[in-house]
Specification:
By secondary structure, this protein is mainly α. It has two helices and no strands.
Length: 62
């Protein structure tokens, strides 16, 4: 899948991220994935990010 823009990854540009999300969604739907499949994918991605962020947390030392 080709990206519809040419920016540096990880720039955090909200507009670029919105375009990327829409592109991924449209590609998945056009490939036959149902809404529930896209929701499951989104949940998996969120879980991966949450695990990564949790792994980087430093203990407070309370």
């Amino acid at each position: 899948m080709a990206l519809p823009f040419d920016t540096q990854p990880g720039t955090g540009d909200p507009k670029a991220l919105a375009i990327l999300a829409k592109t991924i969604y449209r590609e998945l739907r056009a490939s036959g994935y149902a809404e529930r499949d896209v929701m499951a994918l989104a949940g998996e991605l969120l879980g991966m990010v949450a695990t990564e962020v949790k792994g980087r947390r430093t203990p407070r030392g309370d």
